[in-house]
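Continuing from the previous page of notes. For each protein in this section, the sequence appears first, followed by its structure tokens. Read the first protein now.
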Amino acid sequence: MTDQGTQGTSHGPGGAVADSVDRRTLLRGSALAGAGVLAAGCSTAQAEIPSPKAAPNSARFDPRNWESIRAQFSLTRRYAHFSAFMLASHPAPVSAAIKHFRDGLDSFPQQYGLGMDDFRRSDDVRKALAGYIGTKAEQIALTDSATMGIGMVYAGLRLRAGDEVVTTEHEFYSTHEALRLRAQADGVVVRTIKLHDDPARASADQLVARLKAAITAKTRVVAVTWVYSSTGLKLPVKQVAAALAEINRRRDEQERVLLCVDGVHGFAAEDVTMQDLGCDFFMTSTHKWLFGPRGTGFVWGGPEAWARFQPVVPSFSMPAFTGWLTGRPPTGAPGDLATPGGYHSFEHRWALAKAVEFHQAIGKARVAARIRSQSDRLKEGLAGLGHVRLVTPRSAELSAGIVCCAVEGLKPEEVVGRLFEKHRISAAETPYRESFVRFGPSIVTDPREVEQVIRAMATLR
């Protein structure tokens, strides 16, 4: 064990550390330099690198014109990309920002990338995300993926042996595995329920009622997904939050049920804020419907939710280093303390603000409407084909961008293969025990390509 008293007096002049350690002191501190952390970050001779600009051969960006928006992506036009959110293509402004930061890191990594620059750029990313989701930057922890955020939240929640987590059988692997590992570690009980018998026939009342009925006196967490990648069903999170609020009114704070949401397929496909959702924790990647840099994500938590969380990975934040140098538990913004430390793909993380800027230039409401109109038409067209079973609910209340279906007599992988080889349509099959064909209309597809999908699906008999 580390002797905190000894640690608190083992650095700095005369064997003592001042009570107040500001950023400049930390960045110049010999302890950090000796450890190789933030070394030379405080140099006044910062490299002067111009702001990122679009690549010379990129099309001029007109956010009011959908063809101009599509032209910002380097996606081949030989195919219709209805699965572009898996390993997303970067739009030109994001690619330019990544290159800008990478060039700076490659040319003079210590001067350009470490110390105050990282703090400042990461703060800029948090502020951009906060503006996008309508919250405060201090409540956002940056991650490298949704899976990192999901694992971090479920590992870090202050739960005791016997406390219950209620989840569903429809969750993606990351949630199920994170909860299994937590239960294995310290005896937390995970209870898994079935939300619906048929997603296409589900109702908001039914979904909320089944979740509410599963809550017991020992339940402390509800772990769900906003838009299920298995079926395209969108959980009415706001109604779930309201139902839990009724239960929580009769509970002490430490017994309150936290609503934790995997938001990857709703984030940037729906025009909502965290207040609109009403959840306690929200975990997502940003490379899907936002088309942000690959390898980026974040966790948002409300103040009461963060108060019930214990960081599980050391943070490379100013409050964390201050605590280490003074031998005291760190105090600071929960988003700072919860952000996993270490060295990341910083050129991607820092470029995330550009992805937010790109979407905001188009308009969140316009993006959501574009996705909605295409998915609605696709569902309508598929529902009119006798050999196709639509899995995703038709209503906007219970669906978002993802559209899932099954074709009579064909396995999902056969459908995806034929679409790709014969019709130049890139789709996917869902990676679950019960698999379906999955389409994702987005800002890189257009209405003509939606009609192309419907015509192609009509031939698959």
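Done with the first. The second protein uses the same format. Note its length before scrolling.
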Amino acid sequence: MSNIRIVFMGTPSFAVHILKELVENNYTVVGVITAPDKPAGRGRKLNESDVKKYAISQNLKVLQPTNLKNDDFLKELKELKANLQIVVAFRMLPKAVWQMPEFGTFNLHASLLPAYRGAAPIHWAIINGETKTGVTTFFIDDKIDTGEVILQESTPISNEETVGSLHDTLMYLGANLVVKTVDSIAQGKISTKKQPELEEKFAPKLNPENCKIDWSLSATTIYNKIRGLNPFPAAWTVLKNNDEEISVKIYGVSKIIEQHHFDEGKIIATKKELKVAVRDGFIIINEIKLSGKKKMDAKSLLNGYHFSSEAKMV
């Protein structure tokens, strides 16, 4: 694609695969924009983004601006002489950046827009019990995830899907869609459609508050929330056991819908099974992590941890 000069913008592993697909298909990537290095871990060693690591391995020029409106950055960006910019899991761009290239700037979003605009579309599709999602390419405008749609592709969500498995499915689907989008732009065969004005399904940023389990909800609602946060960042709750209150992350679960006489949140533990009573059944915990401990399967926990008869999740 000799007439297309791409600047790629992204930060996490999801974006790496899309950049890799462009490089391996011999598109001309003249620059990569990614987040500044951040101190991490006990030694506060500077941590490079996944996109930066890959870009350096391919000898691509990397820019890491702290301010996207900075004159020096805008000058450097212009000097790359890109005519197309591609954004995958980055941050909101100022108009001076997204309007710069001749063919515009498009974004890959991991939902079927206009549904699930926002920071965490993969998680919220599962949390809300959707049976279908997908990926969308769209031209960026001055709002978040509202620009004209170029292409979309859908995929089913199974009842056992976790955010980890769906993340990978959408990553591969997205890479193919980005390539199709670039080809359409290069061939001058692009056509877009406006997004509908209103859409009630949003994908807000995840935080400790919206990742906490509410044990008063239905088994299906709780089950969807846990798998929609498994393995990252993980749904959490508080375990009350005798005088202890322990923060707990819950990963793999299954559910049973049946009537019972237990209080919501009550823990029923046997030598082989750990389950929590909810309004209309039970959540069976298969994988769990107690604060300060390693993640383990429930049987391993039951071998070395004693639940009192009054133990509950709150």
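What the second structure shows: The chain has two domains: 5-202, 219-313. The first strand starts at residue 5 and ends at 10. We return to this in next week's lecture.
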